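Quick one: structure tokens for this chain, please?
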Amino acid sequence: MADKKNQGFQSGAGLIRYFDEEEINGPALDPKLIIYIGIIMAVIVELAKIFWPV
């Protein structure tokens, strides 16, 4: 019996199989870390606006 993983839409021209096999070579960062960095940067910007008004 054939694997269901290797089956795909024929009209996809192999793109579906290509994206399934794509490897991630970049650094793995926790999504929570990205949110925390964004919050910290927003706090820093708001504090800078208070202490150094233009």
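Residues 31 and 51 are 31 Å apart (CA to CA).
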